[in-house]
Each structure stands twice: as C-alpha cells, then as structure tokens.
Amino acid sequence: MLSKHLKRLDLSRAIQVPRKEFKFATKPRAGPHANEKSIALGLILRDYLHLSDTMWETKKILASRAVQVNGKIITDHKFPVGFMDVLSIPSIKRYYRVLYDTLGRLRLVEIQEQDAKWKLSRIEDISTVKDGKFQYHLHDGTNLIMDRKVYGTGDSLQIDLEKREIISHIPLAENTYAFIIGGKNVGRIGRIESYKVVNAITPNMVRFKEGFETARYNVFPVGTIKPLVQLPEVRSE
C-alpha cells in the first residue's frame, strides 16, 4: 500500500522545509510534476510562506478559494507545485514563480502582479492529432493544439494564463538565454553559444558563452533579448 505521507527526512533535497520539526510531510498528489520535483501546495503555504501554523489552518485558507496556481483556483492542499509554476494570492497581493536555485532547491521568487499573468512552458514532445493538427506536450503536463507545426521540441512558450494564448516563442537556439534545470550548473542562466543535434547514444550538448556546457534536457529557454525570469536568491539553510 502506498503511503499518503512522506517522512520529512526522506524528502527530496529540492524541497526545502524544516526536516525535524514534524515527523511527516504532506505528499503531493500525482500530477504534471514528479514527486521529487514538486511541493505540495499546503507545504508552500505553511512552511515556505508561513501563512499558517498548522495544516488545518492551511486547509481553511485553501477552502476560502484565495490561492491560485497558474491562474486557476486550487483548494487541494496536496496539489503538486513545480518548476515555473506561478502562485498567486490576490487578496494579499503576493505573487511568486517557482524556480531552482544553484543548489538545486525549489524556491519561490516574488514577482509583480503583471508577471503572474503568464508562465513559461517548455515543449517536451509534438504529436499529430485529429484533422492533421499538431499537439504540443509541455513540461507542466498541459497541451496546446495548433494547425501548424511552427515550434520545435526544446523550445519554450510564454503563455497567457487567462486566455491560454501564446505571447511569445523562445527557441532553443544560439544567443537564446536559458535556465539550467539540472546538473552541476543548475540554477544558472546563460546565453547559448552553440547547439547541435547529433543522433547518438550520448545526450546532445549545449554550450554557453559563460564557458560551461550541459545536456539539452537540462536547458530551458527563458528569453531572446533578455531573460524573462530572475534568479532566486541563494540562502544557506
């Protein structure tokens, strides 16, 4: 039988909460982000933002329909929140984007209200669906259906969360700014110097003008002229 809870000492290092204060932590429900790469919304409200002292208080906040994730009201305290998700609490005018820091930990970066109206999503795969249309499978588990195949795998899309429309396209290409989501350079933003697709067993590598390189699957495009997101502040705890 699968456990509904996680022991705090067994939490992924990407999740930064006090590990000895309570024995158990809320386990995120299955969703768009893997368990080890997501945080239960209840933990965010209680342990990251300190808006409540107990999970009972947290559930009351969520029941009041005060919290949104990616523009949708969420009442489930186990809802999984992960990389690039946007958390909004309009009643207290607080807005956050979830990013990795340079230690590979998920962090909430406070943003302005206008920046909470959109998010970046990376294209993971593309498939053909009914009537010859193309379905873009995004990193956050959502999909977009379009008439034409105009974007590529590995590109990012800036998406309006209310209208569900594409604001801009950020290609995986030379001179694009990208956020590193894994490996020893996790949490850095660099500008792509070169990228070449090679049909081989080893992963395709992307080289950056800052002097490092990483596998393509670690590269998340975030801007063409400048990065659209800001790096989280690294804390020592």
Main structural class: mainly beta
Low-confidence stretches: 5-11
Main beta-sheet strand count, sense and barrel state: 5 strands, antiparallel
CATH fold-level assignment of the largest domain: Structural Genomics Hypothetical 15.5 Kd Protein In mrcA-pckA Intergenic Region, Chain A
The CATH homologous superfamily of the largest domain is named RNA-binding S4 domain
Number of domains: 3
> Overall 3D geometry?
globular
> If you compute it from the alpha carbons, what radius of gyration comes out, rounded to the nearest whole angstrom?
18 Å
The level 1 CATH classification of the largest domain is Alpha Beta
- Quaternary structure: single chain
Binned strand content = 35-45%
Distance from N terminus to C terminus (CA atoms, Å) equals: 34 Å
Assign the CATH architecture of the largest domain: Roll
How many individual helices?
A: 2
Count of individual beta strands: 19
Secondary structure: helix percent: under 10%
